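Q: I have 207 residues here and want to know how they pack in 3D. Can you give me a structure?
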Amino acid sequence: MNLESNPERAAQLCTEAQARLLSSVVALTDSDVRSPSRLPGWTIGHVLTHLTRNADAHTRRLAGAIEGEDVPKYESGADQRAKEIGDGADRPLREIIADLEGSFSHLEQVFAACSGAGWPNGHFLGGGDYGVAGCPAHRLREVEMHHVDLGRGYTPADWPDEYVAWDLQVLLATVPERLGSGHERRRLMAWLAGRGSMDTTPTLGPW
């Protein structure tokens, strides 16, 4: 299933994913949020703040679409995103969690409003590379990936089958341009065709 073209189902999966993530963070302490996450250079506080502000960003796009407005995720682009994460990462745990819960709830309310309106203006790009109808699927990716990044016991083995079926295909499509050399492209291609082994892990560029 292409979840980008099925925002209703993607929103359901995203709502479930957000609930799982909130269940994972209820036992965190102030020292936990300052400890390293599995993302280089980011603490757990950085990851949770990013998930909060990312929820707001998708809310902006979806709420704008209901009103017929093509709204970007971040008005000031990557600089705004980075500043919001940096500014919020060192807050007390209670403030981070309250902010997280509020943003998740607001996004889910907008999901419900979009569902009731028939997911209008799904083609709006907001200056990005996917239509607003794809927001629930892309938000689902953020929650599932970053839940693992928290390092609190949630692993890729816990990812829902529907999410994997969609995002594995998307990620596979990025592999050729992310391989480090022509040699690695040939080695991976030979393995996929059953004509070689993958005795070493290929080097992939950032995704």
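Q: Anything worth noting?
A: The chain has a mean pLDDT of 93. The domain at 3-159 is CATH 1.20.120.450 (Four Helix Bundle (Hemerythrin (Met), subunit A)).
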